[in-house]
């Protein structure tokens, strides 16, 4: 028991040391952590679940999943923790690389400063956490890929569920854009009991051009219909990405990095300015 | 652990289920009761501890099941006991990284997964689990059950004679469910932990 506790303390010290060096110098961990099984240490630091990502972002839990205490705080500031939640291999943030981006680096710094200054926390069950499940489906016998967007809904007294909010995929772009011809139902058609309607509805690739200027295709209903009618057979989710728009003025995107480093697991791969609400954001994803 | 004050509510809940009211009426009342039966923070902490034990138990069964040195009876027993930990219909989704980097997923019932594990074509199998288990907080679902996920890491080595012919490290994300079930012995409803679906993904690691 004493030995185990000592080992845990030693491990923590190694991790703190590694993280400090990693964050400050962006160097390789392998030479710092000297252990018989480096994989185990890597998995301890890796953000293993998206939930763990939120807890670390909120400075709620340490690497063991225990509540952050004063000892942890004295060694790991929230700034260091948030920094470690970014993909540190992002070429835009690599100062020595040719793809280094001053804009992105400045934006990232601005984001971190704002989070720290305003003590911004992400609400775990926020409906502004959008999960994008990139999924493999079989469409008319052929494999295809679509994105299914899911958000959380709170029901009753704190009960939570994920709901399907939107879908995106090439196969939902049913209509071809065409600016060569003007398509419309003539103004006097009503007098002929809309004989032209048959002509319009046979123009199957351009049906949307006969619709109102306010028409917006509801891809989710199209998706449900296709599943129900058997045109689409769901296979499995290939990858999940998260779009977090819960932080006012910002959008961060998070995905899982499967690599043999402590900076792995669920990490931020993009940060951008965002002023859209959830519905507008989801609509924009479909454009 | 389970508050006695909730027992009348459960009794009412059960009587409603057994009554002949219209489906809509039962559903709305049922939803209200589900809303009202809650575990306290303390209870949830106790269940979190119990989750660790359940996961340890599962890991132990996996080690026994995979071990070719163990007698067949013991391995069969481990398979049977492991299945008891799971919710009925639990699935194992295995993702494999193909040589071209594309990830492919295969779905199997837990029964099939455990049976396959028992009969892998190796002369010796060594399964090790890392001393890491991350368990997220429990969240109540609209059905009144509490849900969490535990993440564990498994190192697998397959031998042909004395030679290692296969090795992998997989991350296993295990769904955890706390459900209110009938205890046949005490003839009352009690909260019980079950393991649910598992997502197993191969990880890129250093060979150790």
How would you characterize the overall build of this protein?
The complex is a heterodimer of chains A (287) and B (208). Chain A contains 9 helices and 6 strands, in the order H-H-H-H-H-H-E-E-E-H-H-E-E-E-H. With 287 residues, chain A is α+β, with helices and mostly antiparallel strands. Among the domains of chain A are: 2-124, no CATH class; 129-174 and 217-244, no CATH class. Chain A has a 6-stranded antiparallel β-sheet with strand order 3-2-1-4-5-6, sandwiched between helices. The termini of chain A are far apart. The relative contact order of chain A is 0.14. Mean pLDDT of chain A is 87; it is low at 1-16 and 20-35. Chain B is an alpha+beta fold and 208 residues long. Chain B has 2 domains: 1-37; 40-202, Nuclear Transport Factor 2, Chain: A. Helix content of chain B is 36%, strand content 38%. Chain B is built from 5 helices and 7 strands, in the order H-H-H-H-E-E-H-E-E-E-E-E. Chain B has helices at residues 7-18, 23-36, 41-66, 72-84, 110-118, and strands spanning 91-97, 103-109, 124-135, 139-140, 146-160, 163-183, 188-202. In chain B, a hairpin with a 5-residue loop joins strand 1 (91-97) and strand 2 (103-109). In chain B, helix 1 runs antiparallel to helix 2, helix 3 runs antiparallel to helix 4 and helix 4 (72-84) runs antiparallel to helix 5. The radius of gyration of chain B is 20 Å and the shape is globular. Mean pLDDT of chain B is 83; it is low at 1-26. The chains are: A alpha+beta (287), B alpha+beta (208). Chain A binds chain B through residues 30, 36-40, 42-44, 48-49, 51-52, 65, 125, 155-161, 236-239, 258-260, and chain B through 31, 34-36, 38, 93, 103, 105, 107, 130-132, 134-137, 139-142, 144, 149, 151, 153, 155, 169, 171, 173, 201, 203-206, 208.
């Amino acid at each position: 028991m004493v030995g185990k506790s000592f080992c845990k303390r030693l491990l923590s010290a190694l991790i703190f040391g590694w993280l400090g060096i990693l964050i400050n110098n962006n160097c390789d961990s392998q030479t710092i952590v000297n252990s018989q099984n480096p994989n185990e240490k890597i998995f301890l630091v890796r953000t293993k679940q998206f939930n763990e990502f939120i807890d670390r972002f909120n400075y709620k839990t340490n690497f063991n999943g225990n509540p952050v205490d004063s000892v942890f705080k004295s060694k790991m500031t929230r700034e260091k923790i948030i920094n470690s939640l970014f993909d540190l291999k992002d070429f835009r943030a690599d100062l020595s690389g040719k793809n280094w981006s001053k804009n992105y680096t400045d934006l990232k710094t601005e984001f971190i400063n704002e989070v720290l200054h305003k003590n911004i926390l992400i609400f775990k069950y926020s409906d502004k956490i959008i999960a994008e499940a990139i999924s493999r489906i079989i469409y008319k016998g052929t494999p295809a890929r679509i994105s299914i967007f899911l958000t959380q809904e709170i029901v009753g007294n704190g009960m939570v569920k994920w709901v399907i909010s939107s879908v995106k995929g090439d196969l939902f772009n049913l209509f071809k854009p065409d600016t060569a011809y003007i398509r419309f139902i003539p103004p006097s058609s009503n007098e002929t009991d809309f004989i032209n309607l048959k002509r319009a509805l046979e123009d199957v690739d351009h049906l949307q051009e006969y619709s109102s200027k306010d028409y917006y295709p509801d891809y989710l209903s199209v998706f449900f219909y296709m599943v129900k009618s058997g045109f689409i057979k769901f296979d499995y989710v290939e990858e999940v990405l998260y779009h977090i728009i819960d932080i006012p003025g910002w959008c961060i995107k998070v995905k899982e990095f499967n690599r043999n480093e402590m900076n792995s697991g669920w990490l931020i791969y993009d940060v951008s300015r965002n002023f859209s609400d959830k519905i507008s954001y989801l609509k924009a994803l479909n454009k | 652990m389970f508050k006695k004050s909730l027992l009348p509510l459960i009794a009412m809940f059960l009587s409603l289920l057994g009554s002949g009211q219209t489906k809509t009426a039962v559903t709305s009342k049922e939803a209200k009761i589900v809303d009202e039966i809650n575990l306290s923070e303390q209870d949830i902490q106790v269940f979190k501890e119990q989750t660790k034990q359940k996961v340890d138990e599962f890991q132990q069964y996996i080690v026994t099941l995979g071990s070719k040195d163990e007698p067949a009876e013991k391995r069969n027993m481990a398979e049977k006991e492991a299945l008891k930990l799971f919710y009925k219909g639990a699935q194992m989704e295995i993702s494999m990284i193909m040589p071209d980097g594309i990830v492919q997923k295969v779905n199997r019932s837990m029964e099939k997964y455990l049976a396959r594990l028992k009969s892998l074509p190796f002369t010796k199998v060594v399964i090790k689990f890392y001393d890491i288990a991350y368990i997220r907080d429990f969240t109540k679902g609209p059905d009144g059950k509490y849900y969490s996920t535990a993440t564990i890491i498994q190192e697998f080595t397959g031998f042909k004679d004395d030679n290692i012919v296969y090795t992998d490290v997989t991350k296993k994300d295990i769904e955890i469910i706390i459900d209110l079930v009938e205890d046949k012995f005490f003839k009352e409803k009690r909260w019980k932990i079950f393991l649910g679906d598992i997502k197993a993904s191969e990880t890129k690691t250093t060979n150790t």
